[in-house]
Amino acid sequence: MSVKYNWQHPNWPKFTYKSDGLHKVIAQYRHISSHLQGQVAQLNQHNKSEAYIYLMVEEAINTSEIEGENLNREEVRSSVARYLDLDLSQPKGLFHKENGIAALLVDVRNKFLHDLSKAMICDWHKLLFAGQERQYAKRNVKVGEYRTGPVDIVSGHGDYQEVIFEGPPAATVEAEMPAFIAWYNATSPLNIKNDGDYMPGPVRSAIAHMWFTSIHPFGDGNGRIARAISEHALFQDFDIPPLFSISTAINENRDDYYQMLAESSRLNPSVDLTNWVKWFAETTRQAQVDSKNKIDFILKKSIFWDHHKETELNKRQHKIVSKFFEFGENGLIKNGINSERYQNMTGCSSATATRDLRDMVGKGVLETSTSGGRSMRYYLKLIESQPVFAVLPKSNDKKMLEISLSKLADDIKRNIDFFKGPNAKLNKLVNKYKEFSDGDDLHLKRLDQLLSQLDNGGDRQNE
User: Fold this and answer.
1) DSSP E strand stretches across 281-432
2) CATH number at residue 350
3) Does pTM top 0.90 for this prediction?
4) 8 Å CB contact between 53 and 84
5) Domain co-membership, 373 together with 406
6) CA angle 234, 100, 326 (to 5 degrees)
7) Which CATH number does the domain housing residue 139 bear?
8) Is the C-alpha dihedral spanning 6, 10, 15, 21 positive or negative?
9) More confident position, 122 or 28
């Protein structure tokens, strides 16, 4: 039989990859991860909640946009906040898609310390399409159940549609999925027994994504569930769900994403995922850089409002300043507003707009462009022009290094107190601590003191 798709390959699903060139990206990924954890530790509860909502909204918007669905950002935000118990208001209307993706992403984060199971995956599918069951039943898609018929991925529209991928026969899905789930749980950092068996999060996440999408177990929604599983895999490397969104980074490189998926699944059907794994690992690294910038933006917002807590603004002015932050750094903050835009957004007269804008300039809330007259634009005057946090080499950021090492030491102590002996997660923490200590005797002595609490002197094989 000729091999048209990867699941027809004689070695399916024994995926392989070459690690050449991966080490640097994985090292950068881990380094930024530690800094992000340190940043989150410095956030107060309000900003931490704001950061989680912001990043999850970005994830929801982007994972849906990859599938060609445009969601209402405000309703996604409201849904996420409600599921996090941060907003008790009820939606004003039916927003099934927004509510569904928000429920899915919150549940993925709530269950990142759980093993994967058929029940969990099917529950995620139910959450994603809650309220849309009748609509999907007309397309013979059973919400929350594996497909019982064939599934095709098509390209084009109308008479010009072309089948570009076929999932394996429905009769094999019930056998394919248990094998996938068993591999996923066996490679989880929560379950591995030996440190040598550890698979870096981005690699495991990449393989899980390709494997799941190749099986295509559902009649619809496979891409969104696959990216949810990918995040679940990444989260399991952490003690708390980290703040980054891989779908945002994927969506920014959507054409490359589909090309890389197609390369291994149908263009050159293979179980060698080297190119895919390298691309995916770099994308997860970039996702963390993007998240660092978003957290920085949230802190800028907090600093701005703290600076202006005594500044008197009327309702129109307060609304406009809130909109600057709501639209993000690539919105009004980058482009500014003019008097006409101010009038449209607040419903006031031209004279009132001019008076309000000049008042905010005088109070240091806004600043003007160099051009005057009718082309005059107004920009939010942020308090700090430099990032609040920067991902810098250890030697250039002593304060952040101390925070990262302190958190790692706390994690090591909690691990020792809980397990009372050597384990794979402890080895990972110890290795990460050594990497960041960079040979400093004081930090290494502190590590020795922590490890001395292990029964029988501890496992020193990694020292």
Assistant:
1) 366-368, 378-380
2) 1.10.10.10
3) no
4) yes
5) no
6) 80
7) 1.10.3290.10
8) negative
9) 122
